[in-house]
Amino acid sequence: MKTLFVSDILARSPNADVTLLGWLRARRHSGGILFLDVVDSTGLIQCVAQREGASGTFEFAKRIPLESSIEVSGTVVTHANKPREISLKSIRLIGEATHAISPLPRSEINIFDERMADHLLSNRHLYLRNPQAMAILRFRSLLMSAVRRWFEKERFVEFDAPILTPIPLYDDGTAMQIDVHGKKAFLTQCVGFYLEAAVHAFERVYNMGPSFRGEESRSKRHLMEYHHIKAEIAFADLEDIIHIVERLLHDVIDVCWKEGGDIIKPLERPICTDGMHPPFPRIPYEDAINHLSSEGFSIAFGKGLGSDEEASLSKLFPGKPFWVTGIPRIVEPFPYVIDQEDPRITRVADLIASNGFGELLGVAEKIDTIGMLDERLDEKGKRDDPRYQWVREIHQAGCVPHAAFGMGVERLIRWLLNIPHVRDAIGFPRIFRRTIAP
């Protein structure tokens, strides 16, 4: 088992003898000296082989294909104003790279270059090795860990909800339908129904898992399969959940900023810290529609906001995420509370990211009375659908006021790292109109 990594060697005293397992990233030749760039998951170190005195090792190292896995042994040396390197004594080939691909996965390429997108996606299983791709996914791991630690600190219970469900959040056509033993089922769009059941046991619950979108969209912030951070709290209203989300974002971004600097160096861009300054400004949905109309957008009350509309609104709040509050009931699913002061709208708010990155998450005050639930089920044509009976039963068994939020992991990463598309924020993206491969 490997126990020594490049980062360990770079921190060690010189003159130590080491053996390192890794991959051959690049090779340069100058007269009787051979320079090998050897990488592992923690970094890169240069290994130097001299023809004189070690001709066998020198000649063998010249023939090893790039991207091959190798074992190198030698002495750590330091030169003035230069990184440490290994003076090579021996090299062993572990796994020869025989599959030809260009450009090489670990080479200095721009993974965000749209001209290369199809090639990189078709060979994602190899280009995961690219330093930029690795940086994003390592940052993702840090972020998810920070979120989980935050929930634990705030006394939330992690609840694993099912991926297979008999009911979609919206209409059947918006979800991915599958056949289970001859009966219709769906891949989950949202675990909210199950968290709603769990919150009446544990009071504070969260889930971090996959969600699936059946309704096609080819925007830069939509995938067929993505990950959701979902949470619900009992005895809470809209203001409570807005406050919780603002604290969560502040604290998680603070962790990522403090601990993620070295991780994202290959991206050559800073972490966006706009979310570290709550409370965030708010604009009522109706005011937003009126502003957009004055700006020339063809949009009426009751229509959802698209990417262009959100980007225009973000100019009202430069450098800040902002809330759009009071989303119309016609565009929101049935579980959310109707605003008693304005029955056209729901007690729902969407957080729009700064800098034109669009909707980041949604929060909602959820219905706790059977009367309002039945009204909304009637409105959405689901009142007589037996599949929703168990949801009604939750509201007939000591249901309490409760609130929830849902945030897309890939959208959050895209915003924080200023990357062009959510496809770059997940290991193996599933994109509309693209074959599911690899």
How would you characterize this protein structure?
It is a single chain. This protein is an alpha+beta fold and 438 residues long. It folds into two domains: 6-95, Beta Barrel (OB fold (Dihydrolipoamide Acetyltransferase, E2P)), CATH 2.40.50; 122-425, 2-Layer Sandwich (BirA Bifunctional Protein, domain 2), CATH 3.30.930. 28% of the residues lie in helices and 26% in strands. It has twelve helices and 16 strands. It has helices at 6-11, 55-63, 117-122, 124-127, 131-153, 192-202, 238-259, 285-294, 307-314, 370-379, 389-394, 409-417, and strands at residues 17-30, 33-40, 43-50, 69-77, 85-95, 157-158, 164-165, 176-180, 183-187, 204-212, 225-234, 282-284, 322-325, 348-353, 358-366, 402-408. The strands form three sheets. An eight-stranded mixed beta sheet has the order 6-10-11-16-15-14-13-12, with helices on both faces. A five-stranded mixed beta barrel has the order 1-2-3-5-4. Strands 7-9-8 form a three-stranded antiparallel beta sheet, with no helix packed on it. The model has no long low-confidence stretch (mean pLDDT 95).
Q: What would CATH call the class of the largest domain?
A: Alpha Beta
Note the overall shape.
elongated
Q: Give the CATH H-level superfamily of the largest domain.
A: Bira Bifunctional Protein, Domain 2
Which consecutive residue ranges, at least 5 long each, have pLDDT under 50?
none
| CATH architecture designation of the largest domain | 2-Layer Sandwich
Based on helices, strands and strand pairing, what is the structural class? alpha+beta
What is the CATH third-level topology name of the largest domain? Answer: BirA Bifunctional Protein, domain 2
Number of distinct beta strands: 16
Main sheet summary: 8 strands, mixed
Q: What is the CA-atom radius of gyration, in angstroms?
A: 26 Å
Indicate the percent of residues in helices.
25-40%
Task: List the secondary-structure elements in sequence, H or E.
Answer: HEEEHEEHHHEEEEHEEHEHHEEEHHEH
> What is the number of independent domains?
2
Tell me the strand order in the biggest sheet.
6-10-11-16-15-14-13-12
Strand content: 25-35%
Helix count equals 12
Mean pLDDT: 95
Gap between N and C termini: 29 Å
